[in-house]
Specification:
7-stranded mixed sheet; globular
Length: 207
């Protein structure tokens, strides 16, 4: 996503109670974080609010990001329209969502998801808000076999006692997963990936 940031003076990250995940976006510009819950928001830059009704004027920001947010919104078209509304001319929108409705399990329900997406579905949603898509790709392709195995396990083995948490990962397996994701990152520098457990889109508001 970094090559699509453009010129930044004022940025907004929506759903950023885990603000360290967007530390790579910080380049000295003024930054605003928004979340429904105050926990994790930094005083002086954190704002409580909803993605479906952003408390900002039109054309306020140069970049708006919303990573793993839109799937939590009952009306995803309204949420994306709001994200686009607060962007100035030539402003950039950066999104990620979970992929494939067929991969739906009890974990999605526990996480408060309303849906999962294919890449064409997310592109249509963003274009429907008047944005021009610069890039769209799947991600986490390297770990996709493990993702499929975990989803199959959830379908075949009901959660015991309603426990929908993800299974623990050993240090060795975590190292393997990290290396696979690093390989993805190198590939994404040159190519769009054909499948994966997430979808990423970078778009621009026509100026």
């Amino acid at each position: 996503m970094a090559p699509y940031l453009g010129d930044m003076r004022l940025t907004l990250d929506v759903g950023s109670a885990d603000a360290p995940s967007v530390a790579w976006m910080r380049c000295g510009q003024q930054h605003v974080s928004l979340d429904l819950l105050p926990e994790g928001l930094v005083p002086g830059e954190g704002v409580c609010g909803s993605a479906s009704q952003l408390p900002f004027a039109d054309a306020t920001f140069d970049v708006v990001s919303a990573f793993d947010v839109v799937e939590h919104c009952d009306d995803d078209a309204r949420a994306v329209a709001e994200l686009a509304r607060v962007l100035g001319p030539s402003g950039r929108l950066l999104l990620s969502v979970p992929a494939y409705q067929w991969a739906w399990t009890d974990h999605d329900e526990q996480a408060g998801h309303h849906r999962r997406y294919t890449r064409p579905q997310l592109v249509r949603l963003v274009e429907g808000a008047g944005m021009r898509v610069l890039r769209s790709t799947y991600a986490f392709t390297g770990v996709f076999p493990m993702f499929l195995a975990e989803r199959a396990r959830r379908r075949l083995l009901p959660a015991r006692g309603g426990d929908t948490r993800l299974p623990p990962v050993s240090a060795r397996m975590e190292d393997v997963l990290t290396r696979l994701c690093a390989a993805d990152a190198r590939l994404l520098g040159r190519y769009d990936l054909p499948f994966g457990s997430s979808v990423f889109v970078a778009a621009v508001r026509p100026g």
